[in-house]
Each structure stands twice: as C-alpha cells, then as structure tokens.
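Async update (no meeting this week)

Hi team, since we skipped the sync, here's where things stand on the single-chain job. The sequence we agreed to prioritize is pasted below, unchanged from the tracker. I ran it this morning and attached the output directly underneath so nobody has to dig for it. Comments welcome in thread, and please keep replies under the output.
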Amino acid sequence: MPSFQAVSQTTPEIQIPAEKLPADGRFASGPSKVRPEAVTALAEIADDFLGTSHRKNAVKDIVGRLRDGLSELFELPDDWEVVLGNGGTTLFWDAATIGLIRDRSQHLSFGEFSSKFAKGVASAPFLADPMVIESNTGDHPEAVGTPGIDLYALTHNETSTGVSMNLTRPAGADDDAVVAVDATSAAGAIAWDTSQVDCYYFAPQKAFASDGGLWIAPCSPRAMDRINEIDAGPRWIPPGLNLKTALDNSVKNQTYNTPALATIFLTMHQVEWFNENGGMSFSTGRSQANAAAIYGWAEKSDAAQPFVADEAKRSQVVATIDFDEAVSADDIAAVLRANGILDTEGYRKLGRNQLRIALFPAIETSDLEALTGCLDYVIDQLS
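Output:
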C-alpha cells in the first residue's frame, strides 16, 4: 500500500441511498459518540446538578459512583485508588513527569501519542534522559527490564495508528519500578490485568463516551508510594500538577479544582451502563464485534486492507484501513461526511491513503455494518 495521502480539489457529489446509511453516523476516534440515553439522563438531573458546587454532596455522590463503578469494572484490588484530575491525558503526562518519575523512565514510542510523553520527559531538566524504544508505525516495540529505570511508560492502544499491545510488567524491572499505561483509547474496551500495571490513566472521551478535559488514573499501592515519595522530597511541584493533591482530593470524591460536571456525569453513566450489562465482558465484546465488522470487510475488499498487518496487534477500538492508490481515502471521507457519516478521516500526521474508524462500545455494530455498505457504494461510484 502507498504511504502517501491522495488529495483531490473538490468533493465528488455522490448521494448515498438513505436505506444504506447508518442510524448514527458518528465514528470519530475522539471525542467519540455520546449515547443519547446518557444525554437524556443528564438533562433529567440538570436542574439539581449542573451549576452546583463540586464540593457538595450532589456532585461528590456522582464522583463517588464513578470511582466505585470503575473499581467494579476493572476489578481493582481493595488497596487501589481511582484518582481524578482536570486537564486530560496531556496534562497527566506533565503531572507524571513531575510527580511519578523518580529519575529515569523508559518509553515505548510507536505513534503520535506514545511519542509525546517521551518528548515531554526528555525536556525535564530534573530527570535523566529517558530510554526510548521505537518501532515503525503499524507495529509496537517491547519494554526491556533495565536496572535504574524507575518508570515504564506503555501505551495500551496507539490512537493514531490503530495498534494495541498486551500489557506485561517487564521481566528484570527493579522491584519498585512503576508501570504507567496510557489507556486513553483502550480503557473500558480492552481487557487488562492489574497485576501487570501500577497506573492506568486515561481521559473519558473515547470508550467512556464522554467529553475530554478530565484525567482518571487507577493507581496501585506501588504507584501511590511513588507519588507520596516524590511529594515528600525536595522537588517543587505546582499545586495543579501535584498527584498527591489529586490523590488526597479523590479519596474525598472531589477534584482539586472545579471539574466539568457534565463530563463526570456522562462518564459515570457509561461506566454504570457497562457494569449493569456485564462489565468488561460486555464492553469489550461490543468493541470486538465492531472490529470484526470493519476488518472483515477490509480483508474481503479489492480496494482496501487493514493497515496493521499483525492481527494480534490490531486495535479493537480504532481501525486504520489503507486504500489502493486508485481511490482517494480523502475523497471517500469527504463523500461520507457530506452524507452525514462523520470523522472517518485518517490521522493527519500519519500521511497515508487511509481512513480511521472508531469501534468504541457506544457504537452499534449494525452502524459499522451499514458503514461498510456505504464504503462499497462510494468506492464503486468513485471508480
């Protein structure tokens, strides 16, 4: 497949027959589709919830339900804590740089987002240069247990490329080394083992069908010990980036500063929807069915194929699909958008003739199946 993005000057005027269209045309990789039932539930409590103090019971009760729901969903051990803070995953990288890395970290870099944390750490003047292990896009490297590395930075799912990885504590790692995992597009849709991870952080605008601007980090005792250790040391930490401050507030079911209440509610509603229907087996099952629909179509198509060659590394939450050079993925995405099917464009910096399609649990498999029919129709019209 070519590694360039074909570009046309105008959007072809193609009307997809109404009977072929999905019921809901939102396929963005984040912010993702928000379930209408969650929006309705938010509207029903808005008068007593939105616009109220985040330190009063009306909000603290929702935060508590969110923390308890995540503990149930992930089957967290009793000695773990679900920590929350404002700012999303990007801000958490800064907080972790200051408050979770003692001296030197190791980073697996295999896409846009996994590389950003490594770059931020490399610029921190109080830390040793990080050890960065890279791989080509469409693949992922493996962590290497190394003496002196006190934090291993893994990425459960690389949103830019559609590559996911199994989470395993590196053999030979120091006993107190922390394994921190960026799970922003994986959390709630890909299973993980708490014995292999110490800090599993994410923002809720992907599988949890909410908005961004919030970070959530289930933390093990090892991670909390590290947070407390660094907080007690000489390093200056801005209050808004202090993980100890976030931890202390979280156990009181609140955030240090005012959160977006709608974001917290929508996240809680999605978590409880998962739990009421079977927990992770339910949510991962929905994403797996969605993945089967889109990858199955691509493997049978004469014009497309999955970008990630190794099936074991293909994401079940974000599908990246390459197209033959005879058809422009940009044109396909533009036609889809003109017909109400949104946000299927490939990741801009990857620069491939490619679409990127979300497979999150909130998306109905019937809509993914309808999308494949629309893709066939558009490709036929463009040929």
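Quick observations from my side:
Residues 109 and 115 are 5 Å apart (CA to CA).
The two ends are 18 Å apart (CA to CA).
Reply here if anything looks off.
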